[in-house]
Each structure stands twice: as C-alpha cells, then as structure tokens.
Design a protein that fits this description.
163 residues, alpha+beta, Heat Shock Protein 90, five-stranded antiparallel sheet
Length: 163
C-alpha cells in the first residue's frame, strides 16, 4: 500500500468480495466502515456512506448478478488526500438498462404511473458527494465518493477523533 498523494493517487485501504446473496450488503457496509474509520469522515458522513454502500451492493447482488451466489460483488475502499471512495462492481455490465433509469417521482409512483421500485441509485446519489457509474468488459461499477476536510493521517494536520 502507498499513502495517498497530492496528485490524487489513491491508497487502497481494502478489497473484498461478497457472494451475491440477499443480506450480504450488511457484510459490505461493516467492512467499508472498518476500512474508512480513520479517514477523516464525520460520523454523519460515515453513516451516509454505509447506507449508500449497502444500497449499491443490494443493487449489484439483485440486478447485476441476479442473486447468483457463485458470482461475487467486488468492493474496494480507496483513499486520496481529500476523499474516500468505494467501488462496487458486479457482472451486469452488458445490460443497457443501467444508463436508462427514470428519475423517481413520488406523485407518479403513488398514482401508479411509475414502477413502485427504482429508488436505489437515485437515493444513493443523494447520500454521497459524487457517484459515477461505468461499464467495461461486462462489468458494471458504481463509484461512491465522500470528500473529507483535507489530509488525514501521519502527514495530515487533523485527527479523525477531532472531526
């Protein structure tokens, strides 16, 4: 592992995979919380990141990997000098519907004019500072980023305990 650099180079804090089974999003959120614990996020930011990771992982399990336990969801936690990022990757990258999501509208849903589901990535995006969705070679990746207040750790000026 390398320390985060001012040029944006990321330090990999953790990589792991979970089987595509309902409930494994809880494993993912706990592992992300552990990896990101000393990265300078406030308690509120960490809770929002955990919720976003759980929802994105549930989507990857259900929609990307079709609840097939033998197909893993891969997760990485990264730190730059001013942010924490989490990538959630599934095997659903060949599906065109990933880019064609309608924006949920509560009134339309209540009137039955929109599917009752479909809030997932819309809500995830509202919980983090940035969300990017990409597909490449059959893989679908959601990258969630939460900005910190600046450098944290041995070279940084502030301690996570003070935030």
């Amino acid at each position: 592992m390398t320390a985060p650099q001012a040029d944006g180079t990321a330090e990999v804090l953790a990589t792991f995979a979970v089987a595509s089974e309902p409930g494994n999003e809880r494993i993912a959120l706990r592992a992300v919380a552990t990896a990101a614990a000393d990265c300078g996020l406030s308690a509120d930011q960490l809770e929002r990141l955990k919720t976003a990771v759980a929802e994105a992982t549930m989507n990857a399990i259900e929609h990307g990997n079709d609840n097939r336990p033998e197909v893993p969801v891969e997760i990485a936690v990264l730190r730059t000098v001013d942010a924490v990022a989490v990538t959630i990757t599934d095997r659903g990258g060949d599906r065109a519907e990933h880019g064609n999501k309608e924006i949920p509208d509560l009134e339309l849903k209540l009137r039955g004019e929109q599917r009752p589901r479909g809030w997932g990535l819309f809500l995830v995006q509202s919980m983090v500072d940035d969300m990017e969705v990409s597909t490449h070679d059959g893989l679908h990746t959601v990258r969630l980023t939460m900005r910190t207040d600046g450098p944290v750790g041995p070279e940084g000026d502030h301690d996570a305990e003070q935030l």
